[in-house]
Amino acid sequence: MKLFKYQFPKTAHFNIHSLVLPHITGFLNLKLIHTDKALQIEGELVGKVEDKDTITLIDPIEGTHYEHNVIDDIPDLSVEETVAMNEPTEPKVSFAKLSETKPGESVIMMDYGSSGSGKTEFHGTGGSRAFIIDTGDGLETLRAPGFHSRHPNSDPTIARVAEKLGQRGNITTATAFDAVCDIIDFAMEKINDQWDVLIIDDVTALRKFAMNKGLEVGQKLGKSQTLAKAKEFDATFFAVQDYGAEMDLINKFVAGYTSIFREKKKHLVMGCHERITLVPPRDNQGKVIIGGEMVIKDVRPGFTGKTFPDDIVAYFDEVWHMESVGSGDNIVYRARTQGGEELTAKTRHGGIFPVIVKNPNLLNIISAIQTKTPLK
Predict the structure, then answer these.
(1) What φ, ψ does residue 107 adopt, rounded to 5°?
(2) Which of 144, 249, 270, 326 could form a disulfide with 210 if both were Cys (CB 3.0 to 4.6 A apart)?
């Protein structure tokens, strides 16, 4: 009478399998069948042994269970076969000399600055093959006659994203963060032949979308009561864990999509507002001057957290601080490509960009990187 049939996968040159059986009384034949990938063991309860390839176990005391270790040793291999088994697996990546690689196949950039510093104007210079996800009501800048007079051939594709608001401006269900992700995924997979650079204008609004989603997730997980209290009192007071959820969502977003854009060889630009840290002034002895005017400690991209703004910039090739000088028809936009102790800015394309780029043009910047041509 056949009792069982087990298969043990072969995971190494030498395998030991432990076979534990329930209470059996009588003769038990174990038949071992070897294949390249597994050891098959068949158990049969018989009156006598007939198969020379079986192992016979006898349990003379009813109630004792079998525990049998089966040693599964792969037959001896030839020298050639042994060497082949020890060969390293060929990696599924390509190798090339640095001189054979193309610069600027995927430019990952962040621009940040105060309101009116020219961020949206700069985004509009991505040309007609730019795809702008508008989250911060910046389209009026691109619709203005002044922009069209300066960039008459720029006609980017626009996708507008906002939360759906109910009475008194309250959010009924957070959908905007997922909507931004859905737009990027669709653009990448379905219409990737229609655009070269995707621009998010701006990340400050995206952070709010992430916070809204984080509040809902936190409530469902029992980690935050902020949303429930906001509905009860018609006022929102964020807790520490809410900011943590926002930061986690934004970090996942930036880390994931910067990697995807590099893999797909598409350009990504994210604009955000600046965050200025002010500290009290101090005298020569280091004592705080009471009543003195606050001093700027640093200017960084507007992300939540003490160190998060510094961590997030690591994902970007270019982090430029946007500035504006003058007003009206005499306004001059400029970007600072290098920073210092008080200002966060960087470029990974040394020798191409000066410290100050006047009236920065996104298409010209990408072209300068790809052709290794210094921008004047």
Answers:
(1) -95, 120
(2) 249
Instruction: Specify whether the backbone of 149 is left (phi greater than 0), alpha (psi in -120 to 50) or beta.
Output: alpha
CB-CB neighbours of 29 under 10 Å? 20
Judged by average pLDDT, the poorest of 39-48, 105-114, 299-308 is 39-48
Which pLDDT belongs to residue 92? 80
Whole-number Å distance between alpha carbons of 215 and 225:
8
CA distance 159 to 228: 31
Tokens of 367: 């072209």
Q: How far is CA 185 from CA 130, 189, 259, in A?
A: 16, 6, 13
Query: 209: which 2 tokens?
Result: 């979308």
The answer to whether 174 and 246 are in contact (CB under 8 A) is no
Q: Which CATH class is domain 104-371?
A: alpha beta
Residue 75 has pLDDT above 90, yes or no: no
> Does pLDDT of 68 surpass 80?
no
What are the sequence ranges of the domains in the chain?
Answer: 2-85, 104-371
CA distances from 246 to 114, 131, 217, 253 (A): 22, 25, 11, 11
Closest CA to 161 of 139, 186, 179: 179
